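Bumping with the actual sequence this time:
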Amino acid sequence: MNRQRATPRLSVIIPALDERQTIGDVLDDLAGLRDAGHEVILVDGGSSDATPRIAAPGVDKVLRSDRGRARQMNAGARAASGDVLWFLHADCRIPAGAAQQVIDGCARGPIWGRFDVRLSGAATLLRIVETLMNLRSRISGIATGDQGIFVSRALFDQVGGFPDIPLMEDIALSTALRRVRRPDCIRQPRLLASSRRWETHGILRTIVLMWRLRLAFALGTPATALARHYR
């Protein structure tokens, strides 16, 4: 007798810190997902603005956590009730159909993966950055937080979640998950990731900084030391 798998339930986990200007947009994108019975959790790392208050109507849970994306996302995962954890940045935008891609993929069994991204800025150089980001991730099997990492609860628990480090937590999680299986790399639709980091600090300067930090991390430099350079 053939039995269909039950539709996986998503728990979307959004770490936030002083994101009152952006949080409403991504929550609007996720409203239909909540209407369909999935879960959205905001984990605030000590905002000094009104981020938790603004977010409250658009989420199922508002949690408070120590500052740090790894700690915030692990706190969200502990509170989540879904079969699949989907980690999103507070300043991204979610295109129609993205959530269904995650649901369809995870209905096949325990998997993890990420999306190709498009950066929000108009500069031509950002088109090159996003193309290389997506290509590098596809070849290496390593995802960054900008790419909307999703992972079955079973796999997340198997690798122990995000390591409690102040930087490169997404790289470390991806590396652990890649040892179990290669990621599903979703090409379409692409998430819209904020380019404000590149635009604020300079596109070329940010590219060089991020490559230096990733190389140093791969060579064994502690994340605590890298975090000081990043900031």
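The tokens above came from a reply further down the thread. Strands lie at 10-16, 39-44, 61-64, 84-87, 112-119, 150-152, 184-193.
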